[in-house]
């Protein structure tokens, strides 16, 4: 195993897996150089390679054979991620990196040409979809929580990890609504932070008011905004998990009469970006809400939103 070789492996989950010859402060900083999620992902990918029969360091021929086997069962994106993990592991231990060899590169090109590179995208929850979902909800404790979660997740275009990571202290009430301080995110691992404005809604489904109603009903004054609720209706102290957001989205879409297939925790974020594009919002203003660093990743939402705006077929049929 990697830990047994006493190498600086980026998949380590603790300082104990780093080489003891390094000063403790260096070990601590190396361990903190990647997010916990990334380290877990690397560890799982390398564990999969070892369970397949590989070991690190590996030869280019072994890596190529591994990839060829993966190509029959996994999507291209998954294979690319595992190549990245293997590359990081070899670089970290100072070994020759087989993933950069022409053999492995050619194998990956063949996989992409054979399997394609399209990735599965979450189906967006558009504004009209969201309103229909909200109209189907009652007034119970879970309903109040889910209303606030869906509305805030949509209005702030939050990732599921960002949404469940919010605390009461991250909410600042202002005249126009609330300002949410996002202290850390997938694209901000260094914790520079970002502020997102959530205005008062113009309909009965106002994200600011629904959040206030939830916090008042649950008597939450500090700590996590969104928490688990047991079958007796008691609100827990612990925050919801990201997986719970996916479950809530699927349950609420199905209750509203939609096929839940394709919906996920990312559907709220995708829905805001797509709905805003359909409403004519500029790319810059959408990025201000979503936090995308450039238009590159945002473009797929804008393309979807603009698909029927000035559609060429629509002008002649």
Structural features, described:
The structure is a single chain. The chain is 49% helix and 8% strand. With 317 residues, the chain is mainly alpha-helical. A three-stranded antiparallel sheet has the order 1-2-3, with no helix packed on it. Strands 4-5 form a two-stranded antiparallel sheet. It has 13 helices and five strands. The protein folds into two domains: 3-115, DNA polymerase, domain 1, CATH 1.10.150; 127-306, Orthogonal Bundle (hpI Integrase, Chain A). A hairpin with a 2-residue loop joins strand 1 (171-174) and strand 2 (177-182). Helix 2 packs across helix 4 (76-92) and helix 11 crosses helix 13 (295-306). The chain is globular and about 60 Å long.
Query: What profile does the largest beta sheet have?
Result: 3 strands, antiparallel
Strand content: 5-15%
Evaluate the radius of gyration.
23 Å
Backbone structural class = mainly alpha
The CATH class of the largest domain: Mainly Alpha
Strand order of the largest sheet: 1-2-3
Tell me the overall shape: globular
| Number of distinct helices | 13
CATH architecture of the largest domain: Orthogonal Bundle
Please give the domain count: 2
| Overall pLDDT | 84
Given as residue ranges, the uncertain stretches (5+ residues, pLDDT < 50) are 1-21
For CATH, the homologous superfamily of the largest domain is named as Intergrase catalytic core
CATH topology of the largest domain: hpI Integrase, Chain A
Percent range of helical residues: 40-55%
Order of helices and strands: HHHHHHHHEEEHEEHHHH
Q: Kindly, what is the distance between the CA atoms of the first and last residues, rounded to a whole number of angstroms? A: 64 Å
Count of distinct strands: 5
């Amino acid at each position: 195993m990697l830990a047994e070789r006493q190498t600086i492996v980026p998949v380590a989950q603790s300082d104990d897996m780093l080489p003891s010859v390094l000063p403790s402060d260096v070990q601590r900083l190396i361990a903190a150089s990647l997010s916990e999620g990334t380290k877990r992902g690397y560890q799982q990918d390398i564990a999969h390679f070892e369970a397949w029969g590989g070991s690190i360091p590996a030869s280019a021929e072994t890596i190529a054979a591994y990839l060829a086997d993966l190509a029959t069962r996994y999507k291209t994106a998954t294979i690319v991620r595992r190549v990245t993990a293997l590359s990081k592991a070899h670089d970290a231990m100072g070994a020759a990196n087989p993933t950069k060899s022409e053999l492995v590169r050619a194998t990956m090109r063949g996989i992409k040409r054979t399997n394609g590179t399209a990735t599965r995208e979450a189906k967006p929850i558009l504004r009209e979809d969201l309103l229909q979902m909200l109209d189907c909800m009652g007034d119970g404790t879970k309903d109040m929580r889910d209303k606030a979660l869906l509305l805030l997740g949509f209005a702030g275009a939050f990732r599921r990890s960002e949404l469940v990571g919010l605390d009461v202290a991250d909410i600042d009430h202002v005249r126009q609504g609330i300002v949410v301080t996002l202290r850390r995110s997938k694209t901000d691992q260094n914790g520079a932070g970002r502020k997102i404005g959530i205005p008062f809604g113009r309909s009965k489904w106002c994200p600011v008011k629904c959040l206030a109603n939830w916090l008042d009903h649950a008597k939450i004054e500090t700590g996590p905004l969104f928490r688990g609720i047991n079958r007796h209706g008691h609100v827990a102290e612990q925050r919801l998990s990201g997986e719970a957001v996916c479950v809530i989205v699927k349950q609420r879409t199905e209750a509203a009469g939609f096929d839940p297939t394709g919906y996920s925790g990312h559907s709220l974020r995708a829905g805001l970006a797509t709905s805003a594009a359909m409403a004519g919002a500029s790319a810059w203003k959408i990025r201000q809400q979503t936090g995308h660093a450039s238009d590159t990743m945002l473009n797929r939402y804008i393309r979807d939103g603009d698909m029927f705006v000035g559609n060429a077929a629509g002008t002649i049929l």
